[in-house]
Amino acid sequence: MAPVTRALLAVLAAIALVGCATPPLDASNADRDLQPRDAVLGDGAEGRRVLWGGTVVGVTNEAEETLLEVLGYPLARDQRPDTDRSATGRFLIVEEGFLDPADYAPGREVSVVGPVTGTRDGRVGEHAYTYPVVAAEQLELWPRRRDTPTPPRVRFGVGVIFSN
């Protein structure tokens, strides 16, 4: 086989493998249609396994578990919250054990798979709010997004550049 053909096959194989990349959470039996704001309406959400995500609003460490208050957003294809779209409501994630508030700081993005276990009453400012609660089976803390846009790699121009 010619070296050019071999190189072309290697590139095509790499592209095919990237296209088959799997998302980080196994959401095979998760209800993707149920949204946090709908889960508190009493339509049988309790016990349904969901895939939700959003940005952390607050963290409460209790003796045996950690509660994450999350502002939900629709998820992109990679299961990461799409914060450019409208919020889907707030919810609580219950994770057994300790989650460090420095890692799960407000503004960090998370995705979770688990059953809706009920609701809890709380407050958002002075407003009473009922949160759906998800028991985390799988929890993904997403890497921070870069705040600065990546400069273009291609530049066009004519002239002379002087620099020190």
From TrEMBL:
GO terms for cellular component: outer membrane. It comes from the Bacteria. This is Starvation-inducible protein. Coiled coil: none annotated. Residues 1-27 form the signal peptide. Keywords: Signal. The keyword Glycosyltransferase does not apply. It holds the Pfam family Slp.
